What does this fold into?
Amino acid sequence: MKIWLDGHLVDEADAKLSVFDHGVLYGDGVFEGIRFYNGRIFRLEQHIRRLFDSARAIILELPWSQEEVCEFTRQTVAANGLNDGYIRLVVTRGSGGLGLNPYLCPKPSMFIIASTIQLYPKEHYENGLSIITCATRRPAPSALMPQVKSLNYLNNVMAKVEAIQAGALEALMLNEQGYVAECTGDNLFILKDGVVHTPLISDGALDGITRAVIIELCGKLGIEVVERSLTRYDIFIADECFLTGTAAEVIPVVALDRRKIGSGQPGETTRRLLKAFHELAMSTGTSIN
Ligand code: PXG
It folds into this structure.
């Protein structure tokens, strides 16, 4: 496997960062997860724009333009001869001394991995996921800006652990006020009386690229979408529920806290959106070659 690291495509064994990198020492950095399908990188520009917004929000200045980072990403996929897969792009604060001060790190590091990912076993795309509400809350925006896709994922990791310990694969995360934010790596949607609802970004959700695609597809399919604060009640009484994310794509949710959602089977609208998503992903995007 070839890894892009600070301007060079290197062998996996040579792709190394310093133990003094503040990405490792303090989780000081940002990342993106990007998918490619059928030789095309899906929504590449949007992902790179979000990466730059995340970096800007933590005063991390990249020495490349967005166009250059798009091109490095394309080169990495091409160098690995893959047609379908997952890209992990990470920017760290770079190497500095011990101590939090980011101004002592002269140069950020960036690396790009092109590989594959499977978040949930295949059968759950057919039969749906059963999720639980976890006690771990999304951090308040005053603590850690939820829009920043930072290297601080311990909160999400602990939420995931709660899910696994409860025998589930995914956890619903609420914000400090008790409103639904999102799951550990996916945005959440419900369908009620033919209308799709999803939490506000300001309730602590990541401004998901897949979330935006689903809102776009609902528009094309003539399905109304409402962005509003949701509680567990809204999910309990929903007709359908599904999660979206680059890694997860679109996956049905059929139970929350062991309570059946709707019929307890993946819903018709969820299936329609999953199909429309796959069609779009397979036919659009930045060509690898
Ligand atoms: N919420 C969070 C907290 C995320 O990290 C999403 C929602 C979905 O956003 P997109 O833009 O992908 O539709 C994410 C996405 C990984 C990995 O291992 C990354 C994410 C989720 C799961 C796994 O790279 N990020």
